Amino acid sequence: MQLASFFSLQLPAKARFFLLFSVSYLIGGWVTSVWMTGSWITGSWHSVAAVLPEQSIDLLYHRYDQDGQLIDGPAILIRKNLGNTVSVSGEYLVDTVSGASIDVIATASEYTEERTETSVGIDYLVGKSILSFAYVNSTENDFDAESIHLNVSQDLFGDLTTLTMGYSQAWDTIGRVNDDFEEEADRRHFRLGLSQVITKNMLVNLDVETITDEGFLNNAYRQVRFVSDSARGYDYQFERYPHTRTSNAFSLRSLYYLPYRASIKGEYRFFSDTWGIQANQFEIAYLHPLFEHWLMEFRYRHYSQSKADFYQDLFPFENAQNFLARDKELSTYKNQTFGFGIGYEFNSLLDGYIEKGSVNLLLDYIDFTYDDFRDVTREGFVAGQEPLYSFDAWVTRLFVRFEY
Question: Is 402 within the bounds of a domain?
Fold first, then answer.
């Protein structure tokens, strides 16, 4: 099963978000303390000064536990500065998937698989600009992905304004286990961002993104159901998606530092695409220092989206329309995330070889509710009248950083 495509935007699918973490870390122009979406310590905020990232060794264990499916694995990223103008980095990540989501359970059996990802990146500091490049390769038994990422960050107006521009290109090869099926997809991602210091305590970010996809864009295994004369009242056929998709996203973030070393963050994000999906996301987070070396974060996020034009839970007959989808991520749904994080910062270790570091633990509880996707594993119901599906998930991240 395909674990991830770098540019997929809907959250609930497998490990797609782990790619986002590592790549955003590598391509520069971002201040990140972990590879996670959301924020920790500084979160996903544009740098307001053209400086290279700190030399570091970062270790991560991630775990995503949802109804019937577990995704977990380790990751390591090493960053080394070469003089005062160049920073190079390399990352290795492993995802192990066991169990199955409801999409798979309905038409197949549970499975176990592994995805490995490697990436390399380089940042070059020239004046008040940072030029960044990264290459990422991801491999699993039925899905291979390669991508390149370019980013430019420029400080302006006395370092109070930072302009960022980025471009990414991805090439996916999609297969099926025990089958000679093979298809391809190409993806392009354009990014433009502006960060502005409003006051000594307030920072605002504005980001605009456009993503274009072309090729085989659906899951090679997922099927739709249609009304039939069978005993259960329906049968299945493979999904069929358009071969092109254009997505646009807009986000506005604000970070305000409070007098007692705490901070509060707010974010709004809007997403729309040519498949008819529109999504809104709101997030608020509060960071609070605890004693000298401890820091806590509390976070709430709400996400909602409309369905794709060609999505239905139950089609009236086979080949009812040109394009067919029953992926729950293309349905009408919403989710809420309640997050908590705690971190400890430490000073010099090993006679100064480690200048400083931190240990961070982040927990997210996510509740998903679907408005037009039904739980076909529930028996005793007429086709199309099964209970609507819902589930919850826990996301755990343990992150350790050593700066040297």
Answer: no
